[in-house]
Amino acid sequence: MEIMRPQKKTSTDDVAVVSTIPLYRTPPVLEVRLEDFELFAIDRLRVLKGISDELYRGKKPDEIEEPKAILAEFDLPYKAVSNAELESMKEKLTQVARSLGQPLTSADTVFYKVPFEEVPELVAGRRVYIHKGHAYVAMNQVVSLVVTQFRSNLSKDLILANRKWTSMISEKEKNRLTPIVESLSTSYLGPDYSEAKKFAEISLKDIDQVANSSFPLCMRHLFEKLREDHHLKYGGRMQLGLFLKGVGLTLDDALVFWKSEFSKKVGAERFDKEYAYSIRHSYGKEGKRVDYTPYSCQKVISSTPGVGDHHGCPYRHFSEDNLRAALSKMGVSSRAMTDVMDKVQNKHYQIACTLTFEAIHGSSCDAGINHPNQYFSESQKILQSKVSILVCWNHAFRRGPDDIFCLVFLVSLRVRSKGNAFTELCT
């Protein structure tokens, strides 16, 4: 799509300033290769997901660069409140600002007077002063005006685009463009974890310890139910089995692992007849020999477990009491629990998992959790860095303060981990 960039000129010279805010009002005028179209669409989805994750994680708009000249960029018909009118209601505006933790200290504070129905988010959050049907919006809140306007325009255009797509394009392009467009809404944008990283390989002797320290809740729950019941239904076997494959469990070890559990309930002979083939098949050694990849968070969340099933996403499918108990068992503090449950109630399950990761590991995960195997990999990196810090710390003390290399190494790790691992070990 073509990005419309209104041109505006500065007061000091006649140099045109190009807007950086995309409006997407007209179709592209250039031909685009199908491969490029798909890449552009996926890149845009990545950007939108990043912005969405940051906002839902509690980031303020100014932390993800909202421009100060946003009203002029969108050419919205709003004017700043006059000084006289502003002075007459300064006390009320001050109260609103104070409630938001943003006291009016600047003499040149700017407010805009708009119909209250155009800023529903600000009204709902009590972030504006309302008087005679108008909302008085501070400069740092004007993004809500743009969001409302942009959402309105986008909704209208999407309706028209959908009509044109279904009536003229979808059938005509069913073998070329349609599969790409229809798959975008469910696209997973990260690595597929079909090959385990060297640091992520696990062996049977370590699997219980690693499950306790580095498995996400969805896999940890399946692992614990397998140990408890010595059986999982098909959905659970696939979800856990492909995850274990992705973190480095070899086919031979996988057969030993599943057989040791299932044999306790169904016997070794029945396992060999009814279950071993499915495990070899998931590793690409039977049937069509497809090398199946581990499930992404999106696929886990969208699954619908039935009675007796244990797969799916606990943040979505667990009751509140069961989820709180499971998170507490993982070591999530009561303070972090509140944040996690808030995201769950608002159906932001991946963000809830991300907050769980951060609470347990004492380290931020800015990229967000999008895949169970990503959770495992990031966890292993953090845990191994802590081990490296401990080894180097002990080495430095044995060699004395002149061991410059080790001290520099400690400092660099402290910076990368924001001090969490370093502080934990030193206290």
TrEMBL record:
Cofactor(s), names only, from the UniProt record: [4Fe-4S] cluster
Gene3D superfamilies: 1.20.930.80
UniProt-listed InterPro entries: DNA_primase_C, DNA_primase_lsu_euk, DNA_primase_lsu_euk/arc
Domain named DNA primase large subunit C-terminal: residues: 208-376
Keyword 4Fe-4S: yes
Example of a GO biological process term: DNA replication, synthesis of primer
A molecular function GO annotation: DNA binding
Entry keyword set: 4Fe-4S, DNA replication, DNA-binding, Iron, Iron-sulfur, Metal-binding, Primosome
Cellular component terms per the entry's GO annotation: alpha DNA polymerase:primase complex
Positions in coiled-coil regions: none
Entry similarity comment: Belongs to the eukaryotic-type primase large subunit family.
Protein name: DNA primase large subunit C-terminal domain-containing protein
Taxonomic placement: Eukaryota, Viridiplantae, Streptophyta, Embryophyta, Tracheophyta
